[in-house]
Amino acid sequence: MTIAVSTPGFSVNNPELFAGHPLKIFKGSISSPVLEEIIRHHVDDLDAKEVHSTLQDITCLLLCNPSESIPPHYLNTLYFGEKSDLIRTYQKFCLLLLKNDRNNEAHEEKSGSSCNYDRLSEIERGVILSLSLKFSGESTIRDEIKKICDKEKKLLDAYGIPLKGLFVKEEDFRSADFYAWNYLLFFSAGVFLNEPELLQIADKQRAFLRNKVSEFEYIRPLITIIEDAVLSVYISPSNLSESILERKISDADYGLAGWRSGKKTAMSLCYGEKTGSGSYMFNSNLGIIVFGPQYLPYGDCRTFGIKTCPPDPKKFSNPEVSFSESGYKMAGYTKIPGKENDRSHNELWIDMLQEYRNGTLYLDITYLGYETLKDCSFAFYISSETCTVEKNRIINPKSLDHYSGIPQNIVFTGEHDLFTLSPGFTSGTMEIIPLGGNDNFWKGDFLVGFSIEHVNQKYKWEIKSHE
Q: Which of 128, 196, 237, 347 is the most buried (most CB within 10 A)?
């Protein structure tokens, strides 16, 4: 399930954040004339992604705003049948929406584990399933929602904010959708499952969004509609205690190990589908959003990441994970996909060790093989106000400044904290490239890349905070 970006939205350059309901973040609506134009534009092609997105918007509009005047023949045209009953319409669409997921699950049972965990789609599906509990209390649906929330809880930082670089491809990242859908997942699941812990997480994300929403150029109408739907049945608990996220993070199904300590959150991965192999955030605005192998040129993130399936007892890719009182250690093999349409770049394997200990993350990687490496690098996408290299050379985001030279220590500075990225080698080339800070490159401020030129040679980094 993929939400396309073609449906009409509204500008939030001057959002009225506190209008109406005191919890409401998003404000907007779809008028009947706009809705009719959407239907008229898409009616001939029901298989397009844009149409599925449109159907989702329309169905939730019907669900949440039944006073809208929608001529019944539009529903007939959209293959919802002759009856325009809101619940039947919504349930039918949910079946349509979930059909592909069920087919995928059946395929995975036959063919074994899948590499492809689509985090964004799972979050969206969790919201849809939560809304469906308004009409059905089926235990299977409740269990599925809890499973999705449990997975996403493991990908939150120490503040309860989602880590945007994990299991998310750069080309799919859009900050407004990513943060809003995550908030709606915990809010809708918390309300319809009556789970105070999920509501506590939603409260944290709501506060975060209030500070971020002015940066969004576009809010999808569906997001405002779902928020209205949940608020219409929300009864504020008399007492919500402070949410305490677990310090130790582990998920064997997806090769995930992590650690939350104070403001810091470190995560390491051995599995993915052209996604990153880890993250280390010191707060929500300072840290390494994501890191991992990447083919040159750096501007093309389609060549970034690892591609390794979840555990298979018959394969040697299963990671070894252990925890201590001060952190964790993950060791294993992970695969780098070859470049598409380029047979000169074969799939490579990396022997990777990631260890988090007493606030420092240690990376130790070795590219395995017999051939000379071509266009290989290891990249770090970083959120930071400034960076300093060569002792006193300061590089700022959104600038034309650029460093290209021998690998050396880099200091990244935020409003109150700083950290160093220290390579343990001097061979090859290190590049520091300021980024634009928009939704490209996971909204990062800097790209730091290290050329990898030799197989069977260890490359090491140390990422350390200075509190």
A: 128
CA 129, CA 136: separation in Å to the nearest integer?
10
Looking at 1.10.150.130, 2.40.10.240, 2.70.98.10, 2.60.40.1910, the CATH number of the domain 249-466 comes to 2.70.98.10
CA distance linking residue 25 with residue 227, whole number of Å: 8
Report, as an integer, the average pLDDT of 360-368. Answer: 94
Rounded CA-CA distance 167/147 in Å is 17
Q: Scanning the structure block, which residue is given the tokens 């995550």?
A: 182
The pTM of the full predicted model, rounded to 2 decimals, is: 0.79
CA dist 169 and 304 (Å) reads 9
C-alpha span between 125 and 1 (Å, rounded): 8
Residue 379 has phi, psi (to 5 degrees) of -120, 145
Q: Can you tell me the distance from the alpha carbon of 218 to that of 236, in angstroms, rounded to the nearest whole number? A: 29
Contacts with 225 (C-beta within 8 Å, 6 or more apart), sequence order: 30, 57, 60, 61, 63, 64, 65
Contacts 24+ apart (CB under 8 A), 143-150: 145/189, 145/192, 145/193, 146/189, 146/193, 148/122, 148/123, 148/185, 148/189, 149/185, 149/186, 149/189, 149/195, 149/198
State pLDDT tens for residues 221-271: 667 767 877 887 887 776 666 667 889 999 887 789 999 988 899 999 988
For 200-220, the pLDDT digits (tens) are 999 999 999 888 877 776 676
Q: Around Cβ 239, how many Cβ atoms within 10 Å?
A: 6
Distance CA 384, CA 417 (A): 10
Q: Please give the residue that has the higher pLDDT: either 192 or 139.
A: 192
State the Cα–Cα distance between residues 299 and 293, nearest whole angstrom: 13
Segments making up each domain of the chain, as ranges? 32-231, 249-466
**Is-contact 348 354, C-beta < 8 A?**
no
Q: Report the DSSP pairing between strands 286-295 and 376-383.
A: antiparallel
The neighbour count for residue 320, using CB atoms within 10 Å, is 10
The string of pLDDT tens digits covering residues 9-44 is: 333 333 333 234 556 666 554 444 444 444 444 434
**Is residue 310 reached through a cis peptide bond, with omega within 30 degrees of 0 on the bond before it?**
no
Instruction: Give me the DSSP letters along 99-111.
Output: HHHHHHHHHHHHH
Say how far apart CA 311 and CA 321 lie, in whole Å: 13
